UniProtKB/TrEMBL annotation:
<keyword id="KW-0472">Membrane</keyword>
<keyword id="KW-0066">ATP synthesis</keyword>
<dbReference type="Pfam" id="PF02823">
    <property type="entry name" value="ATP-synt_DE_N"/>
</dbReference>
<dbReference type="InterPro" id="IPR001469">
    <property type="entry name" value="ATP_synth_F1_dsu/esu"/>
</dbReference>
<keyword id="KW-0139">CF(1)</keyword>
<protein>
    <submittedName>
        <fullName>F0F1-type ATP synthase, epsilon subunit</fullName>
    </submittedName>
</protein>
<dbReference type="InterPro" id="IPR036771">
    <property type="entry name" value="ATPsynth_dsu/esu_N"/>
</dbReference>
<comment type="similarity">
    <text>Belongs to the ATPase epsilon chain family.</text>
</comment>
<dbReference type="GO" id="GO:0045259">
    <property type="term" value="C:proton-transporting ATP synthase complex"/>
</dbReference>
<dbReference type="GO" id="GO:0012505">
    <property type="term" value="C:endomembrane system"/>
</dbReference>
<keyword id="KW-0813">Transport</keyword>
<feature type="domain" description="ATP synthase F1 complex delta/epsilon subunit N-terminal">
    <location>
        <begin position="1"/>
        <end position="55"/>
    </location>
</feature>
<dbReference type="GO" id="GO:0046933">
    <property type="term" value="F:proton-transporting ATP synthase activity, rotational mechanism"/>
</dbReference>
<dbReference type="InterPro" id="IPR020546">
    <property type="entry name" value="ATP_synth_F1_dsu/esu_N"/>
</dbReference>
<comment type="function">
    <text>Produces ATP from ADP in the presence of a proton gradient across the membrane.</text>
</comment>
<keyword id="KW-0406">Ion transport</keyword>
């Protein structure tokens, strides 16, 4: 599935991921391939991308959660996510 993470200043990430874990207003939620369409607001916290790898151009924006798993995190203050047809856009601060 394709995920794009945008801030007002720049594109944080754009690429293929296996899934994404997001900090929702009612707790974390996980979006996986073929997830139903959703629009949701996000709280401050970590956006975690589960991906085999991240392009070098975007790697500087992420912290690798651990060496064993391919989990990359990006800290946000707030935001909104829209996901439909295996494409998601995360607008955040």
């Amino acid at each position: 599935m394709n995920i794009k993470i945008l801030t007002p200043e720049y594109v944080v990430f754009e690429g293929e991921v296996n899934s994404v874990l997001l900090p929702g207003k009612n707790g974390e939620f996980h979006i996986m391939k073929n997830h139903a369409g959703i629009v949701s607001s996000l709280m401050g916290g970590k956006v975690k991308l589960f991906a085999n790898s991240i392009d070098e151009a975007y790697a500087k924006n992420f912290t690798k959660e651990n060496e064993k798993d391919s989990v990359f995190s990006y800290l946000i203050k707030s935001g909104v996510v829209e996901f439909n047809h295996n494409k998601g856009i995360i607008l955040c601060e």
